[in-house]
Amino acid sequence: MYKSTPHILEVRPKIPARLARLEELANNLWYSWDLPTRDLFSYIQRKL
Asked: What gap in Å lies between CA 8 and CA 23, rounded to an integer?
């Protein structure tokens, strides 16, 4: 049996400057309980 080799993959998409704040919000668990922020992500998802 072969041993697996662990690999780390980090994805850093290029985000337009006008949307840069969204990356900060997405990487912060604060949004998980802040209703206005959750609504913002829900609104964006519908638009996509």
From this structure: 20
